[in-house]
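User: Teach me something about this protein's shape.
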Amino acid sequence: MGPITTALGDARSVLNVGAGTGSYEPGIDRAVLAVEPSRAMIRQRPGNAGPTVAAIAEALPVHGRAVDAALAVLTVHHWSDWRQGLAELCRAAPVRIVLAYDTARHTDFWFVREYVPEIADLELSRPSAEDIATELGAHTVTTLPVPWDFTDGVFPAYWRRPAAYLDPRVRQSCSALAQTHPDAVDRGIRRLRRDLETGHWHETHRDLLGMTEWDAGFRLIESSA
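Assistant: First, the predicted structure itself:
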């Protein structure tokens, strides 16, 4: 949350769009209204979380400039009309903070390139961080490298811990894998398991083993009116 908190600055009220279960939500020092279309996600939010409205980004249930800042964390690529959703962020708040990713970087991730190339079709159909920054007229775009021991289950989180992808629970939490045909994923996982058993993966990617962080393409985009 550090970079996000810094980007929010002195904003006292925040609209968290596509809030999910609230993993990246600001703390109790700010007034937060969460917007999330999935009732299953809303049910998983902690009991002490702020109020939540079941709605979509493309039609935010707030008046113009209703809050100091609008926040959207790893959600824009799920929106049916991402440009309309970003226009709504701009309508709702003078400060807009979006965490997105460079789809080309995701596509070049070793897991995609060597094991499940079918993921590339999905990733390249999504808006990239550069597209989002341009649409918002961003004034700042910050690269957020992924630590080798990152605890969040986003798709490239295990870039240095390949065995994690053998766990079905890990794969289910990654939208890129959950939305790719199961046959393609199963084929890739079998190949990965074999390469881990033979040591081929470690030999091929030994350059990664000495790195403490890696640029998976995540970008923090800041825009203001």
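Now, about its shape. The radius of gyration is 18 Å. The chain has two domains: 1-101, 103-125+148-215. If you'd like, I can walk through any region in more detail.
User: That's plenty for now, thanks!
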